[in-house]
Write a structure and sequence with these properties.
It holds the Pfam family MPAB_Lcp_cat. It contains 13 helices and two strands; from the N terminus they run ααααααββααααααα. With 278 residues, it is mainly alpha-helical. The protein has one domain. The chain has a two-stranded antiparallel ribbon with strand order 1-2. The longest helix has 23 residues. It is globular and about 50 Å long.
Amino acid sequence: MPRPSDLLRRRLVGKVRAVFNDVAAGQAPVPISDDALFERDSPIRMVHAGVVPMMVGGIRSLMLQMLHPHALQGVLDHSDFRADMHGRLRRTARFIAVTTFAQRDAAMAAIERVNRIHAKVTGTLPDGTPYAATDPRTLAWVHVAEATSFLEAYRTYTRPDMPLRDQDTYFRQFAVIARALGADPVPESRAEAEHLFAELRGDLRASDAAREVCALVLSQRPEGAPASVQRAIGTAAIDLLPPFARAMLGLSRPRARVIPARAATRMMAEGLRWAFRQ
């Protein structure tokens, strides 16, 4: 007879897999391969294996990305995010999982699919400036927003003492995917990432549209997930945003909400690490 702890573990794992996989379409979890782009237990695989930190980092990165007018307009013109924000988040999460853990041919095929989609994403900003999803500098911002967000959330909720050499390796590994997607420049260390983040900050703009997308991201609650979980993770993501980004998005960080959100997020992160480690 299964132990109560085994039943709890299976329930937790099942719920997480249902959130990140389209069960109705028969989508199975991404298989972990020893012939992936990255070795087992290497920094990128450790960071991207953290379910809760990746959710926090993913929301943070999306909010940062929407401050880039070219990235924002691409979403507004070529996405059904208003009707299917959860689907968009789920597809992004699966792309990260496939390129990090799956067999290298599957990873490269996923990258090529995204490149084909990006080739069709073009248009003009409200002021008439042309944009394209294949623009290397725009892709550089999308990448550095993701990489710094995932790492910051991992260090906050899983491994605060992560050595700098492992952080540098993380950026060097993630650069493989970024370059295959056409990003340029691409950082290969934490110092380079911080420098690039500061350099590209000048490309960002506050707007009502960016705040609208941000509000939609924060309000999304996967089916079956308690509202309290969504609020905690959203608050944790806001907490990790740079002050300038919170100001541009019109977000606040009240201490009365942040402290319990941090505690709840850390508890969820530890619980899911236990469930998947077993």
